[in-house]
Amino acid sequence: MTEPTSKRGLQTRIVHPEDALTPGFASFSTPVTRASTVVFPDLATMRALDWRNDAQWRYGLHATPTSITLAQRLAALEGGKHALLQSSGLSAISNVYFGIVKAGDDVLMPDNAYSPNREFGDWLARDFGITARYYDPLIGAGIADLIRPNTRLIWVEAPGSVTMEVPDVPAITAAARARNVVTAIDNTFSAGLAFRPFEHGVDISVQALTKYQSGGSDVLMGATITVDVELHLKLKRARMHMGIGVSVDDCSLVLRSLPSMKARFEAHDRSALALAQWLRTRPEIAAVLHPALPDCPGHASFKRDFSGAGGLFSVVFDARYSATQIDAFVEALELFAIGWSWGGSHSLAMPYDIASMRTASQWPHRGTLVRLYIGLEDEADLRLDIERAMTSALA
Hints:
Strand content: 15-25%
Order of helices and strands: HHHEHEHEEHEEEHHEHEHEEEH
Largest sheet: 7 strands, mixed
Number of domains: 2
CATH topology of the largest domain: Aspartate Aminotransferase, domain 2
């Protein structure tokens, strides 16, 4: 016979509260379900659990109703069927490696890949017995000539998040599928909104939810999204073994931001394109690398496959300006903070030495590259800020 709750000790009643959500309560927000331990009604239920079933709760590290809700929405947003949340974008990248490749396998990576991805591949090659090779991001169908019998994974970045080359994704994935090679794309640039990877033959989409999905520059999270269930289970098994989990409080922040993501992305896109077009007229600038502009490498692929570009693009300054002068320009900006990442409300600027970052393709520009992220400030104010910083640092 169950003891009346009123007779239980105070500490017991604190641990086992009587209150519960009002039946029938509903709101627009997803409840935040915090849990490390998941409890079961009986042993039979616990023993019947199947780790392959995403809808079954086993342990808080793997899933709660809050995190599963976010995963399901991300998969639907990108046209996938399965999603796994990760603790960061780089964690999502590492999950792909450990889920797909083993010692003796070969990986192909674009020469414009996200630097931590390059470093991760080089680390696995140095210490874990894989090979990591780099290819020209504009290689297209020519990648077929690089595929070896032991090639297991081909990375794509569309476009490169610093140098902005847009690859011919369908040509690369067709060559990979013909040889039974898995393709993974870093699709963070488009946030799953402006490029639909699974419609172009990609097997795995990686997202850094730190960016537009969060929108507040205050969350670290990533995701791997797939269509094929067996591929999903490989990634899920690797994630379990590595003990990767996410905060449900962070999940709630991303869930709160998702409904406004498309509107924010389009606002970033409008301002960024307007500033990119203006910067093309400036004598200080040798090249503007914005995928929507006709002279950006791979623009034809962008025009065919993408519906927008968001807030990120790069400019190459005229070679007459030294790297020291370009640093002074970046530091003279008032509305652009100095920092990596993007996707939030605030504009960012960061200089790069591109020639030192490439091994498989030649960088054609001599001047210093600065990547700009255009936030949600007034475009006219950003333009004045850039103009003032140029006058101050480059005169």
